[in-house]
Amino acid sequence: MLSERMEKALNKQINAEMYSSYLYLSMSAFFERIGLKGFANWMRVQAREELMHAMKIYDYVHERGGRVKLSSIEQPPSEWKTPLDAFNAVLNHERKVTSMINELVDIALEERDHATYTMLQWFVMEQVEEEASAKDLVERLSLVGDDKGALISLDLELAKRQFVEENE
Ligand code: FEO
Question: Which protein residues are within 6 Å of ligand 1, measured from CB?
Fold first, then answer.
């Protein structure tokens, strides 16, 4: 059984993952609007991944006999100055999510909740990947600078990203 404190913290994380999904969907719409369909695709896949993260915790809370309590999702921004600006926002957001996951791990340890601690290790490693891929795109977009040709070729590359359903 989950402690009240652990359950509350996991519900907060479900909301944070839903917000991440909403944020990236908003970025996808932004890229669609400025004609960068490959970037839009990358963000759309990312939004689906975030929804999967939320559902992973949602299912886990139920599995532990806890209560899922959904709360309102904050409105994300809808405008960024440049693609680089959007990806800097992704990187900052992912760093914030990493610190939220670390806090959850701290709570699991304090509550001596070993099952939740183990479940969270997946998220700890996922955050390493999430930060690395955002950082990679920030660096590549910095190199692209004002070169439209390089931007189009990056757009073509990002168009190839596909959502991979997780099998547990
Ligand atoms: Fe679910 Fe991008 O962290």
Answer: 17, 20, 50, 53, 94, 97, 130
